[in-house]
Amino acid sequence: MSFEYLTFGQEAVFQDRHVTKVSETISPFSKGEKGEIGIIGLPLSKTSISLSQAAEAPQKIRSHFKSFTTYSAEADKDFHDMKILDFGDCLTHPTDLMESTERLYKSVSDMLEVNACERYMILGGDHGVSFPSIRAFSEKLGRVGVIQWDAHHDVRNFDDGGKTNGTPFRSLIEGGYLKGDHLVQLGIRDFSNAKVYREYTREKGIHVYTMADIEKIGLASILITELTRLEKEVDYLYLSVDMDVVDQAFAPGCPAIGPGGLTSRELLSSIEIASAHQKVKAMDIVEVDPSKDIRDMTTRLAAYTMLKFMYGKIR
Description:
Layout (H helix, E strand, L loop, with lengths): L25 E3 L6 E8 L14 H7 L7 E2 L4 E2 L5 E6 L7 H17 L3 E8 L5 H12 L2 E6 L18 H7 L8 E6 L6 H10 L2 E4 H7 L1 H12 L5 E7 L21 H12 L4 E7 L10 H16 L3
Parallel strand pairs: 1-5, 2-5, 2-6, 6-11, 7-8, 7-10, 8-9, 10-11
Antiparallel strand pairs: 3-4
């Protein structure tokens, strides 16, 4: 008996000899290796001001890479030979949030120190992980410009809860890691923020575009304008995608879902435009809670968004 049709420790899935899945192009990082894209997981959601299991997102999002092929019909190009290195997930402290944040910072810093990849994907976690991540990029690579897709400003005060997933950009600005006018916020939603935080963004010179602005001007036009401005003022660009910028109909697996957001197609096309810019170095995806998702709608969209970033520059 050969047991030729049984698999041990593997999924029993169909394989087509002519199809390469994205998961097949990813390998664990080892010293001395070089690749086009580096992936790192920052699985922390204990700083969330709402109940969240977003710490489970990095592994869940990765699992969907086996659902997508490396061939882009729109570009008529197969990316099967692109090398993607996975640096793994940061081990956070079970109770000490400050220690966990420091570990995230150190993990991203170590990844940048080895200079193994051209660009990087950071998987959260709640939006609080953007603070240690962007801090590391700022210290290692110079002046950073950030384009933030988000329903919220994320510049809350520190007195009511310390550093949370509602404070990353206030932390970066007040810590001296990011200039206010080097931050662009896209998709800020009505009835989702406080007046005092809108005033803070004006005071710091943050470029804010609400959903009404997007409807009036158009995402593509806004991005082209801001990319043209930022490329003259910063050394590189970092994209930060809070998935709650997407309408709840397309991304139900977010702790702070709401109506009136972007469609999935608007998110994907805008990421494709931004990631094609030569100064874009990294993107994080945050605020995906698999425990709240429906049929993996949100985690699949997050994985697809990663593909637009990874392959966008060379399409």
